[in-house]
Amino acid sequence: MTNIKFLFPLLIGFLLLSACSKEKSVSLEGSLANCTDDSLRVYTLVGSDLVQVSAGPLNGGSFSFDAKLPSDGFYWIGVSQRDIRSAVLVAGEKVKLDGQCGALQQAEVQSVSNDLYARLSQQMQLDQQRYDGMYRQMMTTGYVDENMSGQSQQLYGKMKGVIDSLQKADSPIGHALALNISSSPFDPANSLYSSPLEHYVAEYLPLAQLKNPIYAHIPMLGEHAGQFTLLLSQAFPEDQSKFETYLDKFLQRIPGNTVTHRNVTARVIGMLEQARSASYAKYAQPYIAAYPADRNSQRMQQVIPAITQYIRQKAAADALFAEGNTPPDITLPSPKGKEISLSDLKGKIVMIDFWASWCGPCRRENPHVKKLYAQYKSKGFEIFGVSLDNDRGRWLQAIDEDGLEWVHVSDLKKWQSVAAQAYQVSSIPQTFLLDREGRIIGRGLRGASLEQKLREVFEES
Q1: Is residue 390 part of a domain?
Q2: Are 93 and 57 in contact, with CB atoms under 8 Å apart?
């Protein structure tokens, strides 16, 4: 439970300091062991780059100077961009930093604002975890009972009260804490949206005042934007239009041509690159045009054609391996050296299972697959295991250790396997489910989805 009474004196002191201070400098002092550098620097994030905004002398590891800042906010203090410590810097405050060079990330930072931020974060953590847990349950089940709705409203109101008081003083702490509240409570009776998920993505970060320029110096916003991009890609994997609609709605809350917008967009583009998203070029091209000198703009120019080519190849693969199509035949050696073909199994329900002894997720899935194999083998279910191993001994050992009694083949060429290339497999585990005529009836099935599909298939047959 958030103990507001305990924090009240510290909070009032901070608000008075914030209200009275018109300075744009922070007093930095402390000592750093094992330092050979002669200056301590303060950095802020601009796009993809850390940019120095202030610096002061280091004398034998000791320092004491006033750092000039463009705004209150969260900055990095260090001797280089690779050896830094994040800190809340608020005009008029004294910040003490003690640690050692080469390990500044573990340095101790003390000030009114840093102490307050640490205490508030800790005190609000339990309420935040309970609130997030209830919301995840609502999104997973799609069901909201009155008791859960009431509890989430109460928790939200409690956290909002603390954040509001800090935001009124334009405190970077309040604006940062606002990012931890991903969504307002979902009330099905009064919501504009039909489901908790739709409410969540449409009203993401409801307490964050994203038009406030202070967010240019709260880099955690970029982290949340990246997480939001990932969530959208998982929520709407086959609906690019809906994905972009919700992402655009979020980005439009941030004024264009601002450092905040640049920082957030850079993080979003980075996440789109990781996902090899078809939306990558839409967001990368305007960024490149606006910030040609950015460190990552040149990289983005190179990534665009690479992702475009990947999307085309994926579309071709999706068409080739669409449900109803007959995939290419596979003929490879078994553990005993006998050539076995996929087509030999025609007349059975067959799952092609691309796996390897070194693939952790594959091995963890095997007990569940064994259970399904035992359940449906007598009804005509067979598994055609294609290993992407390159070590015969480890392949055979994994088959024995996991007790895998189905058909196994491999050319021991790892990712260069002719079967993996024919089926355009770039990650494992990967599965293809075939009907008795050898036509695809499912792809990428694992866990509960595989269990459900097999139940449907054998109930119909």
Answers
A1: yes
A2: no
Q: Cβ(14)–Cβ(72) under 8 Å?
A: no
Sign of CA dihedral 171, 172, 177, 179: positive
Ramachandran area for residue 139 (φ above 0: left; ψ -120 to 50: alpha; else beta): alpha
Tokens read off for 37: 């550098």
pTM given for the model: 0.72
Nearest by Cα to 28 from 102, 85, 106: 85
Residues 280 and 307 sit within 8 Å (Cβ to Cβ): yes
Give residue 11's identity as a one-letter amino acid code. L
Assign residue 384 the CATH number of its domain.
3.40.30.10
CA–CA dist 316, 424 (Å, integer): 10
Computed over every residue of the chain, the mean pLDDT equals 90
Contact 353, 429 (CB under 8 A): yes
Residue 351: domain span: 331-460
Domain count, the chain: 1
Average pLDDT of the residues in 372-381: 95
As a whole-number percent, the residues of the chain with pLDDT over 70 amount to: 93
Q: For residue 166, what pLDDT is reported?
A: 93
Q: Is residue 369, in this structure, part of any structural domain at all?
A: yes
For residue 143, what pLDDT is reported?
Answer: 66
What is the C-alpha R_g of the chain?
A: 28
Say how far apart CA 48 and CA 216 lie, in whole Å: 13
Q: Are 101 and 33 in contact (CB under 8 A)?
A: yes
The pLDDT, as a whole number, for residue 437 is: 95
3-state SS of 382-432 is: EEEEEECCCCHHHHHHHHHHHCCCCEEECCCCHHHCHHHHHCCCCCCCEEE
The pLDDT assigned to 51 comes to 94
Asked if residue 287 is part of any domain, the answer here is: no
pLDDT at 23 exceeding the cut of 50: no
Q: Where are the alpha helices (DSSP H) in 1-108?
A: 4-20
First-to-last alpha carbon distance for the chain, in angstroms, is: 56
Measured CA to CA, the distance from residue 284 to residue 278 in angstroms comes to 11
- The DSSP-derived string for 270-338 is HHHHHHT-TTHHHHHHHHHHH-TTSTTHHHHHHHHHHHHHHHHHHHHHHHHT-TTPPPPP-EEE-TTS-
145 belongs to a structural domain? no
Q: What's the pLDDT tens digit per position in 183-195?
A: 998 877 777 888 8
Residue with tokens 């940062």: 176
Enumerate the β-bridge partners of residue 332.
Answer: 340
